[in-house]
Design goal:
The structure holds 2 protein chains of 2 kinds.
Chain A (H helix, E strand, L loop, with lengths): L3 E4 L2 E4 L5 E7 L5 E7 L5 E9 L2 E4 L6 E3 L9 E3 L8 E8 L9 E2 L3 E5 L1
Parallel strand pairs in A: 2-11
Antiparallel strand pairs in A: 1-3, 3-8, 4-5, 4-9, 5-6, 7-8, 9-10, 9-11
Chain B lengths: L2 E3 L4 E5 L4 E3 L2 E3 L4 E8 L5 E7 L5 E3 L5 E5 L4 E6 L8 E9 L6 E3 L3 E6 L1
Parallel strand pairs in B: 2-12
Antiparallel strand pairs in B: 1-4, 3-9, 5-6, 5-10, 7-8, 8-9, 10-11, 10-12
Chain lengths: 114, 114
């Protein structure tokens, strides 16, 4: 089955630690995205990538880093510089082209700082 | 840059009653429009999308939406809701050119009451 897989579903992190969230897609999509979701604030874009080895900052990139070494994978690292990392993180992908169709989402990772 | 407004943060409605969830957008260029649904602790699932053509778009689970260019609106409707429709609903927009990102509204929580 084609889709987007995020792992783990739940993640706990101690303050001061870096943690990496995994996102893999087998849809052959060029574009991939990371969003952060907080209650009542909708989805806010952290980073996006349209091609391998290239990515762009979104609206709230501070304290986060990404890599895009393979088309299928777009891991997100939440660094210790992120002051309030507890949130629900969603990864998405979409095809690119003249007709920009919808974004497909993974099931999300809930990160909690303890 | 584009933006999305969802005027109602919460909408309670009785089972089998009709419902309308409002969405307005702002953009300086032509856009594609989307409605997504999110169940608790899950990713987003596409309900319907407007790319071009007929302004009345039908989606899954009996939902439909109408694109109104003059009012820059894309309201979601369902003539008779079920308990299972209880979820968070997000309106999203993307601009009509290669590689544009998706911008999401803050969401509307639909609660269907027995």
């Amino acid at each position: 089955d084609g889709g987007i897989t995020q792992s783990p579903k739940y993640l706990f992190r101690k303050e001061g630690q870096n943690v990496t969230l995994s996102c893999e897609q087998n849809l052959n999509h060029d574009a991939m995205y990371w969003y952060r979701q907080d209650p009542g604030q909708g989805l806010r874009l952290i980073y996006y990538s349209q091609i391998v080895n290239d990515f762009q900052k979104g609206d709230i990139a501070e304290g986060y880093s990404v890599s895009r070494e393979k088309k299928e994978s777009f891991p997100l690292t939440v660094t210790s510089a992120q002051k309030n990392p507890t949130a629900f993180y969603l990864c998405a992908s979409s095809p690119l082209g003249s007709m920009n169709t919808e974004a497909f989402f993974g099931q999300g990772t809930r990160l909690t700082v303890v | 840059a584009q933006s999305v407004t969802q005027l109602d943060s919460q909408v309670p409605v009785f089972e089998e009653a009709p419902v309308e969830l409002r969405c307005n957008y702002s953009s300086s260029v032509s856009v594609y429009l989307f409605w997504y649904v999110q169940y608790p602790n899950q990713g987003l699932q596409l309900l319907l999308k407007y790319l071009s053509g007929s302004t009345l778009v039908k989606g899954i689970n009996g939902f439909e939406a109408e694109f109104n260019k003059s009012q820059t609106s894309f309201h979601l409707r369902k003539p008779s809701v079920h308990i299972s429709d209880t979820a968070e609903y997000f309106c999203a927009v993307s601009e009509r050119h290669y590689g544009q990102n998706f911008v999401f509204g803050p969401g509307t929580r639909l609660s269907v009451l027995p």
